[in-house]
Amino acid sequence: MADEFDVIVVGAGPAGENAAARAVRGGLNAAIVEGNLVGGECSYWACIPSKALLRPVDLMGEVSRVPGLTLGPIDSGAVLARRDEAVSYFNDGGQVEWLDGVPVELVRGRGRLDGPKRVLVTAPDGSTRLLTARHAVVLATGSHAVIPPIPGLAEAAPWTSHEVTATKSVPKRLVVLGGGVVACEMAQAMHGLGAEETTMLVRGGLLDRVEPFAAEFVARSFAEAGIVVRTGVQATKVERPRPGGPLTVHLSEGPPIEADELLVATGRRAASDDLGLDTLGLPAGRPVEVDDSMRATAVADGWLYAVGDVNGRNLLTHMGKYQGRACGDVIAARAKGERDDLPSMRDVAGGYGAPQVIFTDPQVCAVGRTEAAARAEGFDVRVVEYDLGRVSGAYLLGDGYRGRAKAVVDERRRVLLGVTFVGPGVAELLHAATVAVTGEVPLDRLWHAVPSFPTVSEIWLRLLEEYGL
Ligand SMILES: Cc1cc2nc3c(=O)[nH]c(=O)nc-3n(C[C@H](O)[C@H](O)[C@H](O)COP(=O)(O)OP(=O)(O)OC[C@H]3O[C@@H](n4cnc5c(N)ncnc54)[C@H](O)[C@@H]3O)c2cc1C
Ligand SMILES: NC(=O)c1ccc[n+]([C@@H]2O[C@H](COP(=O)([O-])OP(=O)(O)OC[C@H]3O[C@@H](n4cnc5c(N)ncnc54)[C@H](O)[C@@H]3O)[C@@H](O)[C@H]2O)c1
């Protein structure tokens, strides 16, 4: 096996896989180094299992809104079994086959930079192999859950996203630390699958990066479902006398809470701590700063790139894959001395505001800027909102459908800066919004994109009418 490759990618998650595949498509050869399972967090401990756990909960909500249908209690065992199937029983054979087909050479082990264009791989058996890159090294190592320094917390061996998404059973009493996306999705999944007491401890506000009205819809739904959300309360100490036994969470106010499990969902940190960045004089444990072609800005000669969570731009699978495609293309172009500024070779989407779906019930999805962000950036902002429940297509989805949409308009150019939807099943509305925002489609043109009747997409017509068209 050769130890020199055109491109070496460290980390075979979605971002790394895409970077390698695009570089090969561009005529280079590539190796990908993976210390765990090919497919990364997303496939085994994040997007895929979390959505497999949420789907029945979502469906339960939908069915309960349609008269004439009844659904018995959720069989959590069957749901967990389907989750296991969705993560391929933690076997990455299918993904390895895909890599073989590209082809990309898989090198199993932990990769570490060892000076310019050198990656030292330590295999699971402890043996080492030095790989050198003719053109580029791409870091695609993802991120880790952060455990805040609360006395007793680390010692209590709390759950992170890894344990909750892979759980073999549903705890009766669950405390969730954090109010972000992981916290909300997983609190809802565990509660819907049978947790009897689910308490969220939220330092700031629930989902504090989305439009406030959308977070309020989620908070109301959680309250109705019996999920207790305590805002402005912090955990001050955790005690778990017996490993795996019940734990006590002491709070900044009020009596302590007893629980069977504690999920820590307080954000993520770039997986760059043990990557050998010091051998290049770069700081460890921080996102690797890159330009729009994914090239590390602090490295001379431009041979180092970083894609996905590790560059800290947007911690989302689709954005990491998009960056990976740009990165692979640009590396191939630069290696061949070809034009390296074609449209596919830059992260343009990130600048508009990445699309994201939060798979709670109701779902929240958004693209572009919130009203607050647009105003802070000095745009001439006008906002239009509409009640989704008043759209015929939404009414037909079930009784008591509740939802809302908000569009943030740049008045000077009459284009959309951002769109947010909240409501059951709104996820599939998002891509139209992404096209409108990223494509900077003028509102007067958007008017001619006629939504079908009776679909929820008629919200587009209503928003434009509210605007005055
Ligand atoms: C619970 C949860 C749910 C999520 N749901 C969604 C969702 O629905 N939609 C969405 O868009 N995003 C979601 N995300 C975010 C998404 O998982 C990440 O943005 C995505 O996985 C990042 O991809 P990546 O390729 O950058 O990194 P990862 O998927 O983390 O892959 C990195 C890979 O690098 C490997 N690695 C790390 N260090 C080394 C090393 N030194 N040597 C060799 N290999 C190494 C790791 O083993 C891993 O396989 C979710 C996250 C969580 C935690
Ligand atoms: N559906 C999706 O697209 C999806 C799903 C899950 C995760 N993700 C991505 O994964 C990333 C990580 O998600 P996350 O929810 O872990 O992080 P996050 O940054 O979204 O939320 C972290 C939460 O923890 C709170 N927090 C931070 N420190 C705390 C402390 N010491 N004590 C109490 N609370 C504290 C914050 O106030 C915030 O509510 C996000 O960027 C998200 O976009 C995406």
TrEMBL record:
Cofactors that this protein relies on: FAD
Q: What is its EC number?
A: 1.8.1.4
UniProt keyword annotation of Oxidoreductase present = yes
Which terms in the Gene Ontology molecular function aspect does this entry carry? Answer: dihydrolipoyl dehydrogenase (NADH) activity
Keyword NAD annotated = yes
Q: Which residues form a coiled coil?
A: none
What the entry lists under Pfam families is as follows: Pyr_redox_2 (PF07992), Pyr_redox_dim (PF02852)
Keywords noted in UniProt: FAD, Flavoprotein, NAD, Oxidoreductase
Tell me which residues make up the FAD/NAD(P)-binding domain.
5-319
| Main enzyme class | oxidoreductase
Q: Where is the Pyridine nucleotide-disulphide oxidoreductase dimerisation domain?
A: 355-460
By sequence similarity, the record places it as follows: Belongs to the class-I pyridine nucleotide-disulfide oxidoreductase family.
Protein name per its UniProtKB record: Dihydrolipoamide dehydrogenase
